[in-house]
Design goal:
It is an enzyme of class 3 (hydrolase). With about 750 residues, the chain is an alpha+beta fold. It contains 21 helices and 30 strands.
Length: about 750
């Protein structure tokens, strides 16, 4: 990658400043300076970068699409809430040089990065932060300051002994390699070494047979264990001599345990592993509410960034509210509020560029067309211009499958007539414009009905205008295939008059009442028809409800405010992190049976082999992050809480004691145990908090996954931040057992 490049830093259509960007020699830091003054404006670490997007994949760069080609544009996306950095290079070649170079540095998959190298990268990053005078050396005082920054409260005498042992040059300072030695002594994993020695006859290596024993007895690997053992040695043993002898050293053993193969998440379930040929109603579908908003519901900003972030997170069901805009162009925003607006064409363009997941499952657009005049024409027109079709005859089945709808974008909305009429030929039928939605959505729908049904008269153009409106409504209606919005008037009414191609939207309050009053009927309804749940209109702060109670009755499209971090979004990310992150998860068999007796609130209706016992030994933690905005020198007192989210009888939480003043390598060695009656619906959430006896504990990190994706044995849990991004190398080390 080039060491210095002049590029445009862009903040808005009118704010384009030339800046000189340079990657420092450590390959860890990028700084940029003003071309005019030469003053360094800012710097950031490669470890702060989440991803790099090519082309016009930001709102600012899309607004400049006519001025600058996509080949010269790219966006650097940072972890957390730090704003994106939009850049325009002087040439396509220069842009590619930076894009590919940055990706190599931030994405371990792009070249063979071992856990040891990841650790070394992290070490160098900390070294840069603590080396105040930038002389490439650290004295003992600087090391003590660094230990505090790294969440270590160590006895001064012990720290000095480690410092002197690493100071091979006896200079009273640590240089690069000496600091690495100091770090390795600091991070020696006694619990892992003890486990290694339990299976090693000489305490120095694991032979192939000894590694096979460990994989079978502790990791419960039951297929091709000898081949697996050979693969692990070839992949994680750092010594060429040991690899040639087919043995695994203690360093290689630790690398394996820290790798994806040593993760609590079953690697086979990371890829697409479920049947995708079931009807759409047999899947949970990752869904967002008011996707265009990135803040609150009243005055928040509308941005295509909301769509980009949701799609990158695996969301497949997106909401688009279209309203009349200036110059005959439909706009997207939250109607009857003070939110900002974005052009509809930019939203559709973003979906066209970003909607393709690893598996080409169908994406959904929930369209509300608030315009009553000619601007309705722009909705189907823009949709078709980006790959849609007014009559996509992909299947004559009223209940198609994700497999049949690959590469399609489905529109949910009001429809004139029935699905059968669209596929086989139109019939005269009045549109179903009623809906049982509560809150703001219902009010908007009633307003639209009133406008569209009002008599047009008083001018000579009245009949012509009415005819024009009807044809435009028909054009919009024709884009709605398989997802006709209908009012929900009860389960009996739905069985008698509704079709599998229809979908009803319910507020969270209405859904809870149905769960409470008719749980089994709700489950049966969701075996053959789609149901969408949306947040209460009272959640103006964009807070979320728990999606678990809706999934418990089989609701497929459970819409959440993706911009709001918290337990609710952790559950969503946890459920949809499997199956190739395609945004579709197959429901358990008993939730796909139209005659099912299952009711999540009634244990007598549950069928199956009986409860399973989940036993979790929380052993240790590694390099836990400091709490945001904590005082200088503060060190956390971490505890671990394990939560079970599932049917009401399975809801539970237990936690360990807290470890005082050690966020670097705390040891708990505590065992927590849970009984799960319906493990097929359970999600397990691991939360690390900083204990505070006088106030609420502070969040440190979390990781959530579906119970069916848990891999038993000795496993690492790689923690995520509050907004779902990784925080390497922070992790927990646990031992998992599942028994019936």
């Amino acid at each position: 990658m080039q060491q210095g490049t002049l590029m445009r830093k862009v903040k808005s259509k009118s704010w384009k400043k030339q800046r000189y960007f340079k990657l420092q020699d450590d390959c860890m830091t990028i700084w940029y300076q003003s071309k005019r003054t030469g003053k360094i404006e800012s710097a950031f670490s490669i470890s702060d970068v989440e991803t790099v997007r090519e082309g016009h994949q930001s709102e600012v760069l899309q607004s400049l699409a006519e001025e600058f080609p996509p080949e010269r544009c790219f966006t650097i996306v940072f972890y957390g809430r730090r704003g994106n950095l939009d850049l325009i290079a002087s040439s396509a070649e220069e842009a590619q040089c930076w894009v590919q170079g940055l990706r190599q540095l931030i994405e371990p998959r792009s070249f063979p990065l071992t856990p040891a190298l990841v650790s070394c990268t992290w070490i160098r990053d900390w070294f840069q932060k603590a080396d105040k005078n930038k002389d490439g050396r650290m004295n003992f005082k600087e090391v003590q300051r660094l230990l505090k920054m790294m969440n270590v409260d160590m006895n001064e005498d012990h720290a000095l002994r480690l410092f002197q042992a690493a100071d091979k040059s006896e200079s009273g300072t640590l240089e690069g390699e000496e600091f690495v030695l100091f770090y390795k002594a600091l991070t020696q994993r006694e619990e892992v070494l003890s486990l290694f020695q339990d299976f090693s006859e000489d305490g120095k290596k694991l032979t192939l047979l000894e590694l096979v024993d460990f994989l079978q007895q502790e990791q419960l690997e039951d297929e091709g264990t000898e081949e697996l053992a050979m693969e692990l040695i070839d992949k994680y043993e750092p010594s060429e001599t040991a690899r040639a002898r087919h043995v695994l050293s203690a360093d290689g053993f630790l690398m394996y345990l820290c790798s994806p193969e040593g993760s609590i998440f079953n690697t086979r379930h990371r890829a697409l592993w479920q049947d995708m040929s079931q009807p759409l109603c047999h899947y949970f579908i990752s869904s967002s509410h008011n996707t265009y908003l990135i803040e609150d519901q009243i005055r928040g900003q509308s941005s295509i960034e909301g769509y980009i972030r949701a799609l990158k997170r695996g969301c497949r069901c997106l909401e688009v509210d279209c309203w009349d805009g200036p110059n005959g162009e439909p706009m997207v925003y939250h109607g009857h509020t003070f939110t900002s607006k974005i052009p509809f064409r930019e939203v559709v363009s973003t979906l066209g560029n970003s909607a393709e997941p690893s598996y080409p499952v169908p994406s959904w657009m929930l369209k509300g067309a608030g315009g009553a005049g000619p601007q309705q024409c722009g909705v189907p027109g823009d949709s078709k211009s980006h790959g849609g079709s007014g009559h996509p005859k992909v299947s004559t089945s009223p209940s198609p499958t994700p497999q049949e709808l690959k590469h399609k974008i489905l529109l949910k909305g009001k429809k004139i007539g029935r699905l059968e009429d669209t596929l086989d030929g139109p019939r005269d039928e009045a549109p179903d414009v009623s809906d049982d939605d509560n809150g703001a959505e219902a009010e908007e729908e009633r307003r639209r009905v009133k406008v569209d049904s009002a008599p047009i008269g008083g001018t000579e153009h009245g009949p012509a205008l009415q005819k024009d409106k009807e044809s435009l409504a028909q054009a919009l209606s024709d884009c709605v295939i398989y997802c006709k919005s209908v009012s929900f008037r009860g389960f009996q009414e739905a069985r008698s008059h509704s079709r599998p191609s229809e979908i009803s939207s319910l507020s969270e309050a209405k859904a809870r009442k149905l769960i409470r009053d008719a749980g089994n009927e709700f489950v049966r309804h969701n075996t053959w028809q789609l149901t969408r749940i949306y947040p209460s209109g009272m959640r103006t702060d964009s807070s979320n409800y728990s999606p678990q109670e809706m999934w418990n009755v089989g609701c497929q499209i459970v819409a959440l405010n993706f911009q709001t971090a918290g337990m609710e979004m952790d559950l969503c990310d946890g459920l949809f992190s499997q199956n190739g992150r395609c945004g579709y998860v197959l429901k358990p068999p008993f939730m796909r049976d139209k005659e099912t007796l299952f009711n999540p609130s009634d244990s007598s209706s549950w069928e199956g082999p009986g409860p399973v016992t989940l036993t979790i030994q929380v052993i240790s933690g590694q390099q836990l992050p400091k709490v945001a905005n904590s005082k200088d020198g503060a060190v956390i007192d971490p505890l671990v809480r394990v939560e079970i989210h599932g049917v009401p009888a399975d809801q539970a939480r237990q936690e360990t004691k807290y470890i005082e003043n050690n966020g670097f390598n705390p040891r708990w060695d505590e065992t927590l145990q849970f009984q799960l009656h319906m493990p097929e619906l359970a999600l397990v959430r691991f939360v690390v908090e900083d204990y505070d006896k006088t106030s609420r504990n502070d969040f440190v990190g979390q990781f959530t996954l579906a119970f069916v994706n848990i891999k038993p044995g000795y496993r690492h849990i790689h923690l995520l931040s509050k907004d779902g991004t990784s925080i390497p190398p922070s992790s927990l080390f646990v031992h998992i057992r599942i028994t019936e």
